[in-house]
Design brief:
Layout lengths: L2 E8 L2 E8 L15 H8 L1 H4 L3 H6 L14 H12 L6 H8 L4 H6 L4 H16 L2
Antiparallel strand pairs: 1-2
Helix pairs in contact: 1-4, 1-7, 4-7, 5-7
Length: 129
C-alpha cells in the first residue's frame, strides 16, 4: 500500500490522516532497490493505477539511460503528467536541478535522491494530489 497513516493527538482531538508515501521513500530501498524512474512511478502507483510490471519495465530508464541522457526521475514524472493531460515539468525541473541531463546533474553535485524528490513534488503540485 502506498499510504502512511499518521495519528495526531491534539487537544483531545484524534485524527487519522492518510498521506501518500513519497517517491523518495522507495528510491534504492531494499528489497526492490528501485531506480529514480521506478521510484517516481511507485510513489504515484495508486493515483495513476500503475502496474508492478510497468514499474519493473522502468528499470531500463534509470541512471541516465533515457534517450538523450534525460534524468529518469524527470522522464517518469513527464509520463505521469502526460497520462493526466498535463504539461511537462522540464522547465521547472531544470531551474531546480540545474539541468535535465542525468550526467550533467550529477557532475553539478546534485544528488539523485533530490531529483526523485523534485519530480515527486512537481507531479503532486501539477496534479493537485
Amino acid at each position: 500500500m502506498n499510504y502512511v497513516v499518521k495519528h495526531i493527538n491534539n487537544n483531545n482531538y484524534h485524527l487519522l490522516i492518510m498521506t501518500r508515501k513519497r517517491s523518495e521513500e522507495y528510491f534504492h530501498v531494499l528489497p526492490e532497490k528501485l531506480n529514480c524512474a521506478q521510484a517516481v512511478l511507485k510513489g504515484f502507483q495508486k493515483e495513476f493505477e500503475i502496474s508492478d510490471r510497468e514499474i519493473e519495465e522502468y528499470r531500463a530508464w534509470g541512471g541516465g539511460r533515457v534517450e538523450g541522457g534525460t534524468c529518469g526521475a524527470l522522464f517518469a514524472a513527464d509520463r505521469l503528467l502526460r497520462q493526466a493531460g498535463k504539461q511537462s515539468v522540464e522547465k521547472e525541473f531544470r531551474l531546480i536541478a540545474g539541468h535535465t541531463c542525468c550526467l550533467k546533474i550529477k557532475q553539478g553535485g546534485f544528488p539523485c535522491l533530490n531529483c526523485v524528490r523534485i519530480a515527486d513534488e512537481l507531479v503532486e503540485k501539477k496534479c493537485n494530489i
